[in-house]
Write a structure and sequence with these properties.
Order of helices and strands: EEEEHHHEHEHE
Strand content: 25-35%
Largest sheet: 5 strands, mixed
CATH class: Alpha Beta
Mean pLDDT: 97
Helix content: 25-40%
Shape: globular
């Protein structure tokens, strides 16, 4: 059976944190706040994959109350989600995602993000779509208070 899933994540921008998106460290004055490395792109993709597989969201697999995973790389989260899907005999066909941020410019990092995400999921980069847009200066994203990502995933799973 072919199944699809949708994922969304958002984190607040704060001082004294690195900005990591799609496993790429981006030079910026602010970083994303979170229990892990707060990579909203990887989190949205993980949720899309889990949803497509009929599984609960990443908060169930990686609760923010688990001290043993504090600071975990979100690429590692994707690898573990991929392993969970393999245990369920779910095959990932592709993922597609959009990062929503006023700053910094994401376009220069898209190819590296596709490589990192694809590698973590065992997918060729042409099976990973990553785009970027702004929120046209509207709302908390438009004011630069955070960064969000939305993702979809297509998988094949047993009926």
């Amino acid at each position: 059976m072919i199944a699809t899933g949708i994922g969304y994540d958002v984190h607040r921008l704060v001082n004294d944190r690195p900005l990591i998106l799609g496993g790429v460290r981006i030079e910026h004055g602010l970083g994303l706040e979170g229990h892990s490395d707060a990579d909203v792109l990887c989190h949205a993709i993980a949720d899309a994959l889990l949803g497509a597989a009929g599984e609960p969201d990443i908060g169930h697999m990686f609760p923010n109350t688990d001290a043993s995973i504090r600071g975990i790389s979100s690429l590692e989260i994707l690898r573990r989600v991929c392993a969970r899907l393999a245990d369920l005999a779910v095959t990932i066909n592709n993922v597609d995602a959009t990062v929503i941020a006023e700053e910094p410019r994401i376009a220069p990092h898209l190819a590296a993000m596709k490589d990192h995400v694809g590698s973590a999921l065992g997918l060729a980069p042409n099976r990973v779509g990553i785009k970027a847009t702004t929120n046209e200066s509207m709302g908390f994203l438009g004011r630069g208070e955070g960064i969000a990502a939305i993702a979809s995933a297509c998988v094949e799973r047993p009926e």
